[in-house]
Amino acid sequence: MKAHPYAHMLSTADCAIIVCGDTRREMASGYWPGDCGAATQNILLAATDMGLGSVWLGVYPTQERMQGVAEVLGLPKEVLPFNIIALGYPDEKKEDVDRFDPAKVHYEKW
Ligand SMILES: Cc1cc2nc3c(=O)[nH]c(=O)nc-3n(C[C@H](O)[C@H](O)[C@H](O)COP(=O)(O)O)c2cc1C
Fold it and tell me: Going from the N-terminus, what domains does the chain have, and what CATH number goes with each?
């Protein structure tokens, strides 16, 4: 996809979901990226549970990517593309990586 420089996997992915924030439907202004992030995480978890591979491809807040995706999809100006989620049946099984670092957790105060 020309609108995204790091999305080469879309040419072989079985499908993709574009998560968007519709600012006309916001209950509180400015929270749409958080809402879209939560929706994305749910989609990624559901995909994994179904045995699918997935990749979060960041679009927001890079203006050129947002404009490019909006043009390709013909989005109304109030509908803002947050990311692209590439989905497909994985060719390889990657080992699980434990990235939990207790030193990054702060209690009571930073
Ligand atoms: C906010 C965000 C944006 C990302 N954007 C891209 C991207 O544009 N292209 C890409 O190949 N991976 C991107 N990734 C990384 C992949 O979604 C994925 O996290 C990465 O391949 C590592 O996967 P793993 O955590 O399962 O090892 C992004 C991840 C996040 C959280």
Answer: 8-104 (3.40.109.10)
